[in-house]
Amino acid sequence: MADIEKKPIKITETILRDAHQSLIATRMPTEFMLPILDKMDKVGYHSVECWGGATFDASLRFLKEDPWERLRLLRKGLPNTKLQMLFRGQNILGYRPYADDVVHYFVEKSIANGIDIIRIFDCLNDLRNLQAAVDATNKIKKKEGRGHAQIALSYTLGDAYTLDYWVSMAKKIEEMGADSICIKDMAGLLVPYKATELISAMKSATKLPIQLHTHYTSGVASMTYMKAVEAGVDVIDCAMSPLAMGTSQPATEVMVETFKGTPYDTGYDQSLLAEIADYFRPYRDECLANGLLNPKVMGVDIKTLLYQVPGGMLSNMVSQLKEQNAEDKYYDVLKEIPAVRKDLGEPPLVTPSSQIVGTQAVFNVLMGERYKMATKETKAVLRGEYGQTVKPMNQEIIDKVIPGEKRITCRPADLIENELDKLEAEMKEWKQQDEDVLSYALFPQVATDFFKYRQAQQEKVDMTKADTKNGAYPV
Predict the structure, then answer these.
(1) What is the DSSP letter of 251?
(2) Could you tell me which of 49, 53, 36, 52 has the C-alpha nearest to residue 10?
(3) Contact (Cβ atoms closer than 8 angstroms) between residue 359 and residue 366
(4) Are strands 83-87 and 235-238 parallel, antiparallel or unpaired?
(5) CA torsion angle for 361, 365, 368, 369 (degrees, to 10)?
(6) Closest CA to 89 of 103, 110, 71, 109
């Protein structure tokens, strides 16, 4: 290996976002994160993924925390490390497509409060749904020199997803003006030798840095990373060992050790990583003890490879069948999932498309007739409200489920009027900072409940905190 030039592999640390989202339903509170930031800041990570995804919703809904305040505190605690977030394209962090003005404002405020890298994905890999977020990031980068737009492709298997498909997507992403590409393998479907093939092909097609994100669900992730690194991938996503493996990512320390003394050596300090792991270990034990961390999600589920169904989608399906006393239909539904997916144009199975396909498959099996009952989300996909799928949808199913209805062929957000002013007017009595409008836009009910809680805390508990509402926010 001596003749390979040095190319240290870079690592994005996920313990402050995807690791705890995957293992303990995004319940890690901000105050628990703060004491360890100083040590994490010294590692030399490529970035720390710490915001976006489900953290926004979970902070407001379950932890009664302001996600924007979390971001500011993380920014303060990690002055030398790039902060990264996950952003669902036109859906931002919510569950519906938003107008472009909301997307632009959200990007602007994310960067203003401390985000460096925005990883943007779309559940159909419809690049049109990512353009507004990329443009917004580039506009700020031009003006302020900060902000990095990374486009994530949801990795999936199927007839449509050939090497040519991924290579042509990489070229299009470069043309769109993105700064880097991420292969987002949410179900752990990318196996080691396929990773060699995929990374080599994409590397020959684009100059953009390529990052690989996977989950340990199917048991192959560490080997996949090894082959990807040898094939030239630039960055891999890992989690500190106490919240690694299972439905989370490969362990940071293991990857650091693996490449030690090779051209890919990270140069990270294992004793520093050990101190960070020591900090998180008691928390993991506490989560096991109180049931927040279910030992089931720590194992290997090879079914994800057999059925290409992400872990969260499987557990969702099992509970739906349980409610209907139809657990004996489990394998029928597993067989029906690929069929529904094909009918809907073979989308990748990631939020929200995974839930839509799974639920429709359950209905098809329980009703004894396919599409006798279609969910409103299935109808929306067939109408084109989520965007364009890689393959055409099944015309027979379109005729059965939405007969005679007009279908959308443009970018869905082109049909949405600007909505910021309207949202601002609806929530102005609660507004204490500009960012509150965005919290309300994404989760109107949950945010309003949080604003009421915040006001009660300010008025009843501690008046010294009341003047913080006019405090300066980093711009």
Answers:
(1) B
(2) 49
(3) no
(4) unpaired
(5) 20
(6) 103
CA atoms within 13 A on the CB side of 291: 0
- Grouping H, G, I as helix, E, B as strand and the rest as coil, residue 63 is coil
SS3 305: helix
Residue type present at position 9: I
Choose among 351, 242, 239: nearest CA to 293: 242
Could you tell me the two tokens for 399? Answer: 């005729």
Residue 144 tokens read as: 């302020």
Place of tokens 């971001």: 71
Q: Kindly report, residue by residue over 18-76, the tens digit of the pLDDT.
A: 999 999 999 999 999 999 999 999 999 999 999 999 999 999 999 999 999 999 999 99
- Phi then psi for 3, rounded to 5 degrees? -85, -5
- Which helix (DSSP H) or strand (DSSP E) does residue 61 occupy? helix 55-61
Lowest mean pLDDT, pick from 108-122, 169-183, 307-321, 386-400: 307-321
Q: CB–CB of 3/260 below 8 Å?
A: no
pLDDT tens column, 373-417: 999 999 999 999 999 999 999 999 999 999 999 999 999 999 999
Separation CA 159–CA 344 (nearest Å): 14
What is the share, in percent, of the chain residues with pLDDT greater than 70? Answer: 96
CA-closest candidate to residue 318, choices 339, 301, 342: 301
3-state secondary structure of 434: coil
Q: Are 362 and 321 in contact (CB under 8 A)?
A: yes
Encoded amino acid at 198, one letter: L
pTM for the whole thing?
0.93
Percent of the chain with pLDDT over 90: 87
CB 18 within 8 A of CB 48: no
Spatial contact of 210 and 233, defined as CB atoms under 8 Å apart: yes
Q: How far apart are CA 20 and CA 248, in angstroms?
A: 8
Q: How far apart are CA 171 and CA 330, in angstroms?
A: 40
Confidence of residue 302 (pLDDT cuts 50, 70, 90): confident
Class of residue 8 by CB neighbours under 10 A (exposed 0-12, middle 13-18, buried 19+): middle
Query: Could you tell me if 148 and 46 are in contact, meaning their C-beta atoms sit under 8 angstroms apart?
Result: no
Give me the residue label for tokens 């051209």.
263
What are the DSSP E strand ranges found in 132-229? 148-154, 180-185, 210-214
According to DSSP, the β-strands at 210-214 and 148-154 are unpaired
